[in-house]
Design brief:
41% helix; alpha+beta
Length: 464
């Protein structure tokens, strides 16, 4: 396993495109769909292979963990298109909000009640694969006729969706982080957007401070104090230390043990403690952060390009834009997060596994994947579709330009840790919130986070 991760990292460092997660994110502002809704009929028919399954009628359950009205409509339409081409296969669509999804999916796995097909990021895969709850997709994925057209970045992405050298999830696209800014606020504060195209972290902190005016209920940052908020600090810490890994060496020493880590921790969380973020953002996750930006309460927002859709729908033209991710001043490498918005998985108890595999082949095809990425401002999986005009203009071009920089270092997540998803969504959230509310000092918080990482290194990595 250790060798596998090293190979993946080497592949990442040779990529010219950067991928994004969600890390801890989700789609546009999330909402839960009613359970058990049939997929709606819509859209033109996309190419498909032979009818799925053995011809016998089967109804498959589909679970999406990143719902939004737009994403739900798209996925339902694709479920229906697949049904049109494979009349023996019907679907029941369900969803669960991102912030509750990890615990609910793991609970379903423990009770052996996972749906036939589901979405989830790498943390979900790492929880489900060791339990034997999802299917090995390696042969299906690498045997696809379109596999040779995948970008190198996508191949690296799919490599991170592995457990014991087997692929268990197929990425739906990839993204990276950028800083959404209120251009009207910037101009009022004396800044020009064009002067911040290559900004560093010191300038970022300065901008956040200058955009803060509590008397007008304006704050410089939509802060993520809730689940997965640790990732925002990790991005900053790794960038400032130019160390894009939780475990920088071939041992259990963590990035938090760097002598500068505590100071950087205090500076980053000082954005909240010093009043540059709304007080209730101690509990904010994806949805609240996005709402805080679009409703005029916060002047900056750290999010991937999928959020451009929400901004286009909810904000006036010319009042916002996206700046490249900040970097350390004078750094030789610009550290950026990369990852998928989600991956598709087939449950081990899927009622018709061949039908499940065929659906994933369908929704991952170049034509459907391009349609998906256009709809949600993601970056497509295939080289042949990256040249589409959609990715060469507007907000997406800004992201693409950042990804094509020649000095990138890719921020990795320790996906070898089977409880990494729990760490982000629960443990790190609880520890950092203790610091944010004054219940615990920074030294204790750093020590607790570090101890958890080292203990889980010993359990999941050491000796393997």
């Amino acid at each position: 396993m250790k060798k596998q991760i090293s190979l993946v990292l080497a592949a990442l460092l040779s990529c010219t495109l950067l991928l994004s997660a969600c890390s801890g994110g989700g789609g546009a502002a999330s909402s839960q769909e009613p359970a058990g809704e049939p997929a709606s009929q819509a859209g033109e028919e996309a190419p498909s292979e032979e009818p799925a399954g053995g011809g016998e009628a089967v109804e498959l359950g589909f679970l999406d963990v990143m719902p939004s009205p737009e994403r739900t409509e798209f996925l339902k339409s694709q479920l229906d298109k697949f049904h049109e081409q494979n009349p023996n296969v019907t679907f029941t669509y369900n969803s669960v909000p991102w912030d509750d999804a990890y615990k609910k999916v793991v609970s379903m796995a423990a009770s052996n009640t996972l749906p036939d097909i589901l979405t989830g990021d790498v943390t979900f895969m790492l929880a489900l694969a060791p339990m034997g709850q999802i299917e090995d997709l390696t042969e299906m994925w690498e045997g696809s006729p379109d596999y040779g057209d995948l970008s190198e970045a996508t191949k690296a992405a799919s490599s991170l969706y592995t457990y014991e050298d087997k692929v268990y999830a197929i990425p739906d696209g990839y993204q990276t982080q950028g800083i959404f800014v209120r251009t009207d606020w910037l101009e009022a504060a004396g800044y020009k957007v064009e002067d911040l195209q290559n900004w560093n972290w010191d300038q970022y902190f300065e901008v956040v401070e200058k955009l803060t005016d509590p008397t007008q209920n304006r704050y410089g940052i939509a802060f993520r104090g809730g689940g997965n908020g640790f990732m925002r600090f990790y991005e900053y810490l790794a960038s400032e230390l130019e160390t894009p890994a939780i475990f920088p060496g071939d041992n259990d020493t963590t990035i938090l043990e760097d002598p500068r880590a505590q100071e950087l921790f205090e500076k980053f969380y000082g954005l909240y403690k010093n009043g540059q973020a709304p007080k209730d953002s101690v509990n904010w996750a994806f949805k609240e952060m996005v709402e805080g930006f679009i409703n005029g309460q916060c002047g900056t927002l750290n999010q991937p390009p999928e959020v451009t859709i929400t901004c286009e729908q909810s904000m006036e033209d010319g009042t916002w834009t996206v700046l490249p991710f900040p970097s350390k001043e004078g750094a030789q490498k610009k550290v950026l997060l990369w990852g998928q918005t989600a991956g598709y998985m087939v449950s081990a108890n899927c009622k018709d596994k061949e039908a499940g595999f065929d659906f994933i082949r369908y929704i991952s095809s170049p034509e459907v994947n391009l349609e998906y990425c256009k709809a949600f401002s993601g970056l497509p999986l295939y080289k042949s579709t990256l040249n589409d005009d959609f990715f060469q203009k507007g907000a997406m071009k800004g992201y693409a330009d950042a990804l094509l920089a020649d000095n990138l270092a890719y921020l990795t997540q320790p996906t070898e840790l089977t409880q990494w998803g729990y760490f982000l969504s629960e443990y790190a959230k609880n520890e950092t919130q203790k610091y944010m509310t004054g219940a615990q000092d920074s030294a204790t918080t750093i020590a607790n986070l570090n101890s958890w990482l080292k203990e889980n290194y010993a359990k999941d990595i050491a000796g393997k």
